[in-house]
Write a structure and sequence with these properties.
- By secondary structure, the chain is α/β, with parallel strands linked by helices.
- The chain is 44% helix and 12% strand.
- The chain has ten helices and six strands, in the order βαααααβαβααβαββα.
- Strands 3-2-1-4-5-6 form a six-stranded parallel sheet, sandwiched between helices.
- The longest helix is centred in the first third of the chain and has 18 residues.
- The radius of gyration is 17 Å and the shape is globular.
- The mean pLDDT is 96.
């Protein structure tokens, strides 16, 4: 079964965010604050989307980071700490299964693009470093859509840019909220469950439940 267009989420789906904890530790903050901070960034982005507003990921991330680091005995000025943590996005690696999975999907003739709530430049650095950029025809960001995922407008923007109908595209993500949003927008979906998680019953179930991109490539072949 051909997927036609495969749309990848970026943060956590393609990129491994585990090293972001090291960035927190570098500035004197507890490493465990990293996932709490990232979840807060998503929350605030979703909140703005819910009221019809939007702001760039890096703006929300930086502002929320200052809040999270408030009261922490940092080893440098807070602005320097924020800069050091945020620069970590540009130094991330892809998950171990990504390279083979992407190459297999591309070899099978699928069109590959990314659609991130973050900036396209982060996706560019990530894929260039992994030697995978050539397999993606476009790196899209919700900054150009004017609305964050999981709002329908974000997926509609990607479909319009790529010239395909929703039924001819599949959204690949590790986030159930992204899967649900894409499904409600009419796309097919593939949930990458690398950690043996439980998919929330309150979200639309994915069309495909796989544990790696390698498995997805084989399934779509």
């Amino acid at each position: 079964m051909s997927a036609g267009l495969v749309i990848f989420d970026v943060n956590e789906t393609l990129s491994d965010l585990e090293p972001m904890g090291e960035r927190f530790a570098d500035v004197g903050a507890p490493a465990h604050l990293a996932p709490t901070w990232f979840a807060g960034v998503l929350r605030d982005g979703f909140a703005l989307t819910a009221v019809g507003a939007s702001a760039p990921f890096v703006e929300i991330a930086g502002n929320h980071l200052r809040i999270v680091l408030g009261g922490v005995d940092l080893d440098r000025p807070v602005d320097d700490a924020v800069s050091h943590v945020l620069s970590g996005f540009g130094a991330l690696d892809v998950h171990p299964d990504v390279a083979d999975g992407v190459r297999s999907l591309a070899a099978d003739g699928h069109r590959l693009v990314t659609l991130s709530n973050g900036s396209a430049s982060v996706a560019e650095k990530l894929l260039e470093a992994a030697g995978l950029r050539e397999h993606f025809e476009a790196l899209l960001s919700v900054e150009d859509a004017g609305v964050w995922k999981p709002a329908a407008g974000a997926y509609a923007y990607a479909l319009e840019r790529c010239g395909v109908e929703a039924a001819d595209a599949v959204l690949v993500a590790v986030h159930p909220w992204d899967i649900d949003g894409a499904a409600r927008a009419g796309l097919r979906t593939a949930w990458i469950d690398r950690n043996g998680s439980t998919y929330p019953d309150h979200f639309t179930a994915p069309d495909h439940h796989v544990t790696s991109l390698d498995e997805l490539a084989a399934l779509l072949r």
